[in-house]
Design goal:
580 residues; nucleotide-binding; Rossmann fold; 6-stranded mixed sheet; aminoacyl-trna synthetase; Signal recognition particle alu RNA binding heterodimer, srp9/1; binds adenosine-5'-triphosphate; BirA Bifunctional Protein, domain 2; cytoplasm; Glycine--tRNA ligase; 3 domains; Gly-tRNA_synthase/POLG2
Length: 580
């Protein structure tokens, strides 16, 4: 469906609005209107069902303003830059890679500024607004900076991703998970990027919502306990090699993708599949979903493998809506170095390792009388020394000088070198991190775009029943007091039973059906004169427009089956007569 048509409905019916319209608006900010906010919450709660309930991860919530240290360690202060260029005439700014892509169709993401400047000049790219010449390309940091505290001495940033809020309390999280890998922590919340001239609606916002999972694993165990259950599931992949050779995407099974080394691990593959399952479940058709691997030029230097989940759109082509990466130990290692905190995890070997180790021991009968009260200190210090170095010094100089608070001179007779066996139970390592990073706003855009249907003179959002913002509409057939009263009672009763129910009595019944279809309400309950006598109502299904007559007292139970348990409307035919 066309972008313009869907966005028009979304605006008109209260899904998405440009923010601050009365002050002429600011690019890159949107309001979720009443229906948009309901839809967004339902999608985020469905996400929680997948990642918290089914995968067993835990959610946490961290501040959105963070001190500079966090982003120095994460690399955002130095590297979170986009290439920028400006029109020398009208001063309009552009993201250099995007303007090249728009005009030439070339994918230049990740190229150096110098190279982008050359392409702008070679391709004679000019300002799309006024035709003026563009400047050389320079790096522009995307983070919003702020000052923390009344005197404003401490630099802070609005977080550009939720992930860092999970890495910084890693030590506490590790203790919460009883020091055992693997474990996963998720965060849903706002992220901020001061995007250069965002012109793509909800796709490129300056304030947006992410749902991210950080899965901490032993680097040697990138598996998933349920991988065998998805081995034969198909994935549409666009590997880096195919992109470089201008080949088409391929469709292969999850098992094959791992066996052929196209995706780097079972765990990453599982998370690609899970992301697709989630998207299909919330109503995005499988045909418009594909996975594109990052090219070596665009992948972060520390990542082993990275895939974008992309959705096909008629206006913007394929757009990234989720990034899924193996970030290795980069984040924890870097936070450990910057904070001087030990963020390693002890990994126990399956079988303890026995190793032989040379040790230095002091001969008590020599050291005792020689150094008296300092002897204990010297014995302890010797334990930590490398026997090789001590031996070498003894050989070369005939003595070894031990530097403590003062210098103690030791000779060969004072020491004994012995080989001892040591049992090593495990080692301390930095875990690796697998990160699925969902952009909720882009997901909502994709859903609106691909669920909007136009058929036989009517339009509707084909939202899955448990995602639809309004779940049921109660409509009196005509605007007569007795019917209105019964309809209002039914609506109240449904609300008390936890349904998002709406009442509408204005206009013809046909117009009202059209109105509720337009916002994707899956079911309508119509109250007519007969209802007053036989206490039955008509239940109408949005997608088929079929109707069934059911007793009012059964309504809650039937709607629970349909909306919460996703029972098929068609299945009501076992107990009731369905009419066209
Ligand atoms: N400016 C934005 N507006 C809306 N969503 C965004 C924005 N930037 C990122 N996201 C969402 O967050 C997800 C994860 O962020 P990530 O850092 O991987 O994006 P990205 O690769 O920087 O995106 P892009 O290349 O489009 O700028 C993206 O897949 C996207 O859905």
């Amino acid at each position: 469906m066309s972008h313009e048509e869907v966005m028009k409905i979304a605006r008109k019916r209260g899904f998405l609005w440009s923010s601050f319209e009365i002050y002429s608006g600011v690019a890159g900010f949107v309001d979720y209107g009443p229906l948009g906010a309901l839809l967004k919450n339902k999608i985020m709660n469905k996400w929680r069902e997948y990642y918290i309930i089914k995968e067993g991860f835990y959610e946490m919530e961290s501040p959105t303003v963070m001190p500079e240290e966090v982003f120095k360690a994460s690399g955002h202060v130095d590297h979170f830059n986009d290439p920028m260029t400006q029109c020398k005439e009208c001063k309009e700014v552009y993201r250099a890679d995007h303007i090249i892509e728009e005009i030439t169709g070339r994918d230049v993401e990740g190229l150096e500024n110098q190279k982008l400047t050359e392409i702008i000049s070679e391709e004679k790219i000019r300002c799309p607004r006024c035709g003026g010449h563009l400047t050389h390309v320079w790096s522009y940091n995307l983070m919003f900076q702020t000052l923390i505290g009344a005197k404003g001495k401490k630099i802070g940033y609005l977080r550009p991703e939720t992930a860092q809020g999970i890495f910084t309390p890693f030590k506490r999280l590790l203790r919460f998970f009883r020091n055992k890998l693997p474990f996963g922590v998720v965060q849903l919340g706002k992220a901020y990027r001061n995007e250069i001239s965002p012109r793509q609606g909800v796709i490129r916002l300056r304030e947006f919502t992410q749902a991210e999972a950080e899965i901490f694993v032993n680097p040697k165990e990138k598996t998933h306990p349920r991988f065998h259950t998805i081995k034969t599931e198909k994935l549409r992949l666009h590997p880096a090699e195919n992109q470089e050779k201008n080949k088409k995407p391929i469709t292969i099974t999850a098992g094959e993708a791992v066996e052929k080394g196209i995706i780097s691990s079972e765990l990453l593959t599982y998370h690609l599949w899970l992301a697709k399952k989630f998207l299909v479940d919330i109503g995005i058709p499988e045909e418009v979903i594909r996975f594109r691997q990052h090219l070596p030029t665009e992948m972060a230097h520390y990542a082993i493998d990275c895939w974008d989940v992309e959705i096909k759109t008629n206006r913007y082509g394929w757009i990234e809506i989720i990034g899924i990466a193996d970030r290795t130990d980069y984040d924890l290692k870097s936070h450990s170095e910057h904070s001087k905190e030990d963020l390693k995890v002890f990994i126990e070997y399956e079988k303890p390792k026995i190793i032989k180790k040379e040790t230095i021991q002091a001969k008590m009968d020599k050291i005792g009388p020689k150094f008296k009260k300092d002897a204990a200190k010297i014995i302890k210090a010797l334990e930590g020394l490398d026997p090789k170095i001590v031996k070498k010094e003894l050989k070369e100089n005939g003595q070894f000088k031990l530097e403590l608070d003062k210098t103690y001179t030791l000779i060969e007779e004072d020491l004994e070198f012995k080989e001892v066996e040591k049992t090593i139970k495990g080692e301390r390592i930095f875990p690796h991190v697998i990160e699925p990073s969902f952009g909720i706003d882009r997901i909502i855009y994709s859903l609106l775009l691909h669920s909007y249907k136009k058929e036989e003179g009517r339009t509707y959002f084909n939202f899955p029943v448990d995602i639809a913002p309004v779940e049921v509409a109660v409509l009196p057939l005509i605007n007569k007091e007795k019917l209105v009263q019964l309809a209002l009672n039914i609506k109240e009763d449904l609300r008390n039973n936890g349904f998002i129910a709406e009442f509408d009595a204005s206009g013809t019944i046909g117009r009202r059906y059209a109105r509720i279809d337009e916002i994707g309400v899956p079911f309508a309950v119509t109250v007519d004169h007969q209802s007053l006598k036989d206490h039955n109502v008509t239940l109408r299904d949005r997608n088929t427009t079929k109707q069934v007559r059911i007793p009012i007292k059964e309504l809650t139970k039937i709607l629970e089956d349909l909306l919460k348990r996703r029972k098929k409307f068609q299945d009501l035919s076992h107990s009731y007569k369905i009419q066209n």
